[in-house]
Amino acid sequence: MKIKLNTISAFQFNQLARYTTLILTGIVFTKTTLSQTEIGEYETFTFLAGAVSFFWLNGLQKALLPLTGNNSGKETGIFSSFVVLQLLSLLAAAFLFLLQPVFSDFLLNGKEIPVAGLLVLYIIFGVPSGLVEYYYLIEQKNKSSIIYSTVSFSVQLLLVALPAVLGWGIKAVFGGLVISALLRYLWLWIIFITAKKISYSHSFVKEFLQLGGPLVLATLLSGSAQFVDGFIVTSNFDEETFAIFRYGARELPLALLLANALSNAMLPGFAHPAHLKENLFQLKKSVSRLMHFLFPVTIVLLLVAHPVFPVIFNSAFAQSATIFNIYLLLVISRLLLPQTILNGMKITGPIMTAALLELTLNVSLSLIFVRFWGIAGVAAATFIAYLFEKIYLSAVTYRKLKISPADYIPIKPFLVYTVLTLTVFAITEGYLKFLF
Asked: Cβ distance 400 to 350 under 8 Å?
């Protein structure tokens, strides 16, 4: 069967390649001479880079796509947005570097930021270089996107994993990660020059920031929960425990990446209200296709996680399987995509409200649950809060736009899969895990 290559599938492949690289890197680390503490330092390094950049990066990237639906936006949007992201990257790097004592004393349980100088470089060059994949999406260069993803992340895996395999130490690993970011950054500039995209538009930036502002705040409120969870773990446990938490707190890669890629790729379509009916049909069709694939995969992974985790990684990461199983349940909320409709139609206020409610619920439950169930309690709070957020946005979409969940979700099979998945989880964590 021939798979049709389009902007959605190409963007999904990019996100899948990114996540596969992270998983393979983690597996390689556990098979080398790197200690669990050093692995924890690597996780802290990438965690901090994400903590100071994820909200404005993701929020502005979501704003970029609806604004590049016309020729003017395509011509000036990518470079204009790069200027904004580069400035914000510099500010984020300076913020992290200058506030090292604060991060160390209050958020890292007294531990220093790993190799702060390299972390600063990684943020400055690595964050804006992510625009490469959005350039390919906007220009609908699907084949180029696939090639770039394959080469880019293969090089990253080589540069990061090889120093660990050769026993060069964790600092060499950090160096390889920074070099991979620099190579992506260089490629972005090659695109700007060869495609003649060095064109700045003040009016585009103004609209970009106006639309992106609420999305940045919404992403900060919603997405920061995972980083708050991480800081709750780092402030209560050591680096070894943080590594266990991070190795488990991955959720199903395909659910996160494919659903997010689908959502982002469909944003430009929902920017045109005249085609609402067709886009809702396309969204429902895409969700149905993902659902029939992701839920069965999730159920299989729930059943095999406990025996497989110590084999794939090592026995020190056996507890990560429970965290992983809890995060697998996020597939339920990932396949609910009311935010795609609201974002595409530039209705961002309710998204911000939902994000605030989700963050409040997540942090509150995490602080309570961690006392009873440790790091597993933190993961459980995330599942509950994320599901609440999607239910709230679905209600808002129906109230404001009269768009029922049935218009973009195949309701009956979705509910059947949800009940089946929760049942398998209960059996696995209540009984099967004690057999291994």
From this structure: yes
What gap in Å lies between CA 131 and CA 64, rounded to an integer?
A: 10
Q: What's the token pair of residue 61?
A: 């990237």
Of 189, 221, 248, which residue is a domain's last?
248
Q: What dihedral do alpha carbons 114, 116, 119, 120 form, nearest 10°?
A: 170
The span from the CA of 237 to the CA of 17, in Å, is 31
CA distance 131 to 282: 26
Q: How many domains does the chain have?
A: 2
Q: Are residues 270 and 397 in the same domain?
A: yes
- Dump pLDDT digits (tens) for 81-92: 999 999 999 999
The whole-model pTM stands at 0.75
What phi and psi values does residue 313 have, to the nearest 5 degrees? -100, -105
Same domain for 267 and 243: no
The 10s digit of each residue's pLDDT in 351-372 is 878 888 888 899 899 989 988 8
Angle between helices 202-236 and 349-373 (to 10 degrees): 10
Q: How far apart are CA 419 and CA 425, in angstroms?
A: 10
What is the CB neighbour count within 10 angstroms for residue 102?
11
Q: Is 320 exposed, middle or buried (0-12, 13-18, 19+ CB in 10 A)?
A: buried
